[in-house]
Amino acid sequence: MSFYNKKLKLFTANANPELAREIGEYLGVPIGGSQVKRFSDGEISIAIDESVRGADAFVIQPTCNPVNENLMELLIMIDALRRASARRITAVTPYYGYARQERKARARDPISAKLVANLLVAAGVRRMMTMDLHASAIQGFFDIPVDHLPGVPILSEYYSNKGLDDLMVVSPDLGGVTRARGLAERLGADIAIIDKRRPEPNVSEVMHIIGDVKDKNVIMTDDIIDTAGTITNAAIALKERGAKQIFACCTHPVLSGPAIERIESSEIEELVVTNTIPLPDDKKIPKIKVLSVAPLLGEAIIRIHEDLSVSKLF
Question: What is the pTM of this model?
């Protein structure tokens, strides 16, 4: 596909340049010239190497690990583009860091997801594009348009082509029921729900499974898999209740700490993820299958640039 318009500019920093390259190839648009460097004291220096005056600029930069470095690169690049007279700047942030700090769970907690939204708007973003926010209400933290793209269509297409029978989609917690139902409807499957208690952050305990998973091929779905404690504990419980094969999928493979070791030794046959977050070589194990979101983001970029409906993609 070729979609070249000199007023459409794509830029990227260091968070996920491979995804940016894929989007550029899909659109037939070269990645804009820029340099991201560090001063000797660690400060970030960004230079834009081409004219962006009057351009519709898209900065492709998920705020994944290292979150603060990638967030600052994004903010500084946005500021550089704004001061260089870009007509509109859209932050294409498929993974939105700090999204799990979207409310006050205890007294005196910050709402960091709102703070990040404020920083992006103050820097000069005039439109946001993201995927599978941990809480959809985060869209309301922005006083600018937000295009919130779902990962379910990409995941459901993969499982449809896999040709599994006796399917059941499982939500690993009560908060993910809507997501699980969306996947189940596309696959024509029933859903089950795991009611779990989390005594402290990154520690989960499976309590009860709502639904009969006996002799079913099970697909657990979530927006983020971080330390993988939830899905691996859930896989044990599902196997104990008679599930045949257990698959898992998510949009954002954070996979921190002991996640890879847990997945490798788990009852999970395959974990399907997307490339909203780049997987380093030490996390590329045979059990993990990566699907690209570049065509979806590329189509959304075209529609935003041409002032067309993004929702019609789904």
Answer: 0.93
